[in-house]
Amino acid sequence: MSKSWFSMRASGGPVGELQIFSDIGGGGVTSEAFHAELSRMRARGVKTLIISINSDGGDVPIGFHIFNMLERFPAKKIVRIDGLAASMASVIAMVGDEIIMPSNAMMMIHNPWGGVAGSVEQIESFGTALKTMRENIVGAYAKRTRLAVDQIRAMMDKETWLSAEEAVRLGFADRIEAPLKMAAMASLPDVSRFKNAPTRARGIAAIRADIFDKFNRKSETSPGGQRRYLTKDERWEYGDS
Hints:
serine-type endopeptidase activity, 2-enoyl-CoA Hydratase, Chain A, domain 1, ClpP/TepA, two-stranded antiparallel sheet, alpha/beta, 8-stranded mixed beta sheet, single chain
């Protein structure tokens, strides 16, 4: 499979794995392609689907299309938030029958946003669409967490970042597991566009360092088999699955 923001593989039995890394949507990846991969898993008889997430979010309509396809998929769904589930990625996470977060993972919820140029009618129509998206997102969180919708709206209004402990306490996740140290190279989600991202005022380099400290050091194995840890200044990328 070519490099993309998601990859799938069946584990040779009833357990399949889905990985969502980087942005949701874009890059030429379509919902139709996603549907085709899920159809292959269905044909293989997958009964447990593990969904690993490390993403800063992305396109809301595409995200809900993915959410709905996953919700209809006839398998137990286990979501693992391996690093960050922000924005639309956190909505997709709500599809899990069980949501697991390592102790150093984070989740972020906020209001959908965007911009449009055009006539008054077009701008008003876009505003109405954003409000509808917002209520759909609120509904997904409320169904999973059982929190009051007013509380969820207030959290979204101020862009709320949740630690694993906070996510479990509020119902956004079910349990905490030990931190991960990944042998594969990892992608650092771009949090610069979020208003309350950790240490935003110190700029991208500081954010990169701050998240590096919050997450486990990502490790890679060299061709000779010797393992080393990446430094804060190195770029992290996922290799092809």
